């Protein structure tokens, strides 16, 4: 049984990982400033309100809970915001990790599971993307995540830390019992936005671009169920606890769905059509981003079990219906 300090554990992926940790008997201690996370998503251990940019907040949490390992989800993730406010992203996403690494060193804690992203690749040369693809991120967000990966490599080389950088493709879905799910504000992700428009909880969805070089002209993404992601975090933590020094792995499914295919799945699951307006391409959207999973299979024994697109939407829909007060 491990005690794990989960930075950003009140957020979307972090809260699902906390649930998975608790389910196998570990204790997740959530450390979160609640700037975008939700106190109501912290159900499986204590909540420490603190900021990753504060050494004293972090030192207090390490002293009080003496964690065996750290998982880090506390970052700014909205790609468009990063383009407008790069300094805020660099301060939090990179500065915050530097402060965290200092606190880990003082506390003598080495294992760190870090949320990275397929955004580190930018426009890949080849899809599905392998971890050996050149990293040339095209957004501030992607560059901050890549900068942290480089920093972690440097520290792991001298034995300061042992780390896993998990490069998520499109995290989606919700806890199957509907108790936690995706609650971003603003919401920019496709599946919640499609469900919202289908349920008439907002206006029409904006569909960004139908002129990509793909099978139906819309972007293809690799949607992976958040509970499958959670399992990969547990496997990564176990490897690090057992002495592994460095893991870099893509987390997706290996195949993709286009925006229009997602809307068809929404209709299959909900019986509702998503009304949409076609808009121009969104800046920075690559045509196709899918993961080659060979490496994750090998190093983490990663096998997505809940990630077919309909299952993802069933779980997302259950959660959103509850939060939007829809009874049908
Ligand atoms: N899309 C729409 N309308 C919407 C939302 C999205 O048409 O309202 C389209 C996007 O243009 C894109 C696809 O749906 O083609 C998926 O978009 P998401 O915003 O759901 O996901 P992204 O692929 O843009 O984002 C993911 C991660 C980010 C990460 C990014 C890197 O969620 O954290 O990949 O490319 F930075």
From TrEMBL:
Its cofactor is NAD(+). Transmembrane segments: none annotated. CDD domains: UDP_G4E_1_SDR_e. GO terms for molecular function: UDP-glucose 4-epimerase activity. InterPro entries: Epimerase_deHydtase (IPR001509), NAD(P)-bd_dom_sf (IPR036291), UDP_G4E (IPR005886). Pathway: Carbohydrate metabolism; galactose metabolism. Keywords: Carbohydrate metabolism, Isomerase, NAD. It catalyses: UDP-alpha-D-glucose = UDP-alpha-D-galactose. The keyword S-adenosyl-L-methionine does not apply. The keyword Ribosomal protein does not apply. Residues 4-252 form the NAD-dependent epimerase/dehydratase domain. It holds the Pfam family Epimerase. Gene3D superfamilies: NAD(P)-binding Rossmann-like Domain (3.40.50.720), UDP-galactose 4-epimerase, domain 1 (3.90.25.10). Belongs to the NAD(P)-dependent epimerase/dehydratase family. Homodimer. This is UDP-glucose 4-epimerase. It comes from Hyphobacterium vulgare. The lineage of its organism: Bacteria, Pseudomonadati, Pseudomonadota, Alphaproteobacteria, Maricaulales. The gene is galE.
């Amino acid at each position: 049984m491990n005690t794990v300090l989960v930075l950003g554990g009140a957020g979307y992926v972090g809260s699902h990982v906390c649930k998975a940790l608790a389910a196998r008997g570990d204790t997740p201690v959530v450390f979160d400033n609640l700037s975008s996370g939700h106190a109501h998503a912290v159900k499986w251990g204590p909540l420490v309100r603190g900021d990753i940019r504060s050494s004293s907040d972090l030192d207090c949490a390490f002293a009080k809970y003496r964690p065996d390992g750290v998982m880090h989800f506390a970052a700014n993730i909205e790609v468009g915001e990063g383009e407008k406010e790069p300094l805020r992203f660099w301060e939090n996403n990179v500065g915050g990790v530097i402060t965290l690494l200092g606190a880990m060193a003082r506390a003598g804690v080495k294992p760190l599971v870090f949320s990275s992203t397929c955004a580190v690749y930018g426009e890949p040369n080849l899809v599905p993307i392998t971890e050996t693809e050149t990293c040339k991120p095209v957004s501030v967000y992607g560059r901050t995540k890549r900068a942290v990966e480089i920093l972690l490599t440097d520290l792991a080389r001298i034995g300061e830390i042992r780390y896993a950088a998990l490069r998520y493709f499109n995290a989606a879905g919700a806890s199957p019992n509907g108790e936690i799910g995706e609650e971003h504000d603003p919401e920019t992700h496709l599946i919640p936005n499609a469900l919202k428009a289908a349920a008439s909880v907002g206006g029409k969805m904006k569909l960004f671009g139908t002129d990509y070089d793909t099978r139906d002209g819309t972007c293809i993404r690799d949607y992976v169920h958040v509970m499958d992601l959670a399992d990969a975090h547990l496997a990564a933590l176990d490897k690090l606890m057992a002495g592994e020094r460095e893991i870099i792995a893509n987390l997706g499914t290996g195949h993709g769905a286009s925006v229009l295919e997602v809307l068809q799945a929404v209709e299959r699951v909900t019986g509702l059509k998503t009304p949409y307006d076609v808009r121009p391409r969104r800046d920075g959207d690559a045509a196709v981003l899918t993961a080659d999973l060979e490496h994750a299979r090998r190093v983490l024994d990663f096998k997505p079990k809940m990630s077919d697109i309909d299952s993802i939407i069933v779980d997302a829909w259950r959660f959103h219906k509850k939060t939007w007060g829809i009874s049908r």
